[in-house]
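INTERNAL TRANSFER SHEET
From: sequence group
To: structure group
Subject: SnoaL-like domain-containing protein

Please process the attached sequence and return the structure record in the designated field. Keep the field labels unchanged so the import script can parse them.
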Amino acid sequence: MKKLTILYILILLLSNVSELSAQSKESKYEKEKRDISTMLEAFNADAARSDFKAYFDHFAEESTFIGTDATEVWNKKEFMVWAKPYFDKKRTWNFTSLQRNIYFSKDGKLAWFDELLDTQMKICRGSGVVEKINGQWKVKQYVLSVTVPNDVVDKVVSEKASIEDLLIKQLKTQK
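Return from structure group:
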């Protein structure tokens, strides 16, 4: 009976240690989620304020921005060149997050997110990958997409068909 009681206590202690470890891991990721959310909020606010340096400091040196137009795929330097006139004229974008999800790699060094944004284009989706570099989360890839309600997809496709048919032909010949 004494051995059974000791065994029961050991099992109880081990289950508590395991539970504490899981809670500790979860709370670590909760802090990281807050840090990433804070960075993304600043990222959007810096664009809205037309703060060129602060906005681009959120990007890793090796990063990619993918815009809403099929031709918009830029590395950081190319995106900076494209965006500079908008920042200089104080005609940047103002995105606010409506809903955000953040996920982590097993080692916790990478995270990816998706969010619905309130923008001048109405609801858009921002998604991307962030990496912790020198203790700070940096954008490695950002993708901005215009959402299209299912009820109007046919109208949107009809509207963009003539423009994108040409691009489709061009892209197929480049393969």
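Handover comment: The mean pLDDT is 91. The radius of gyration is 23 Å.
Transfer complete.
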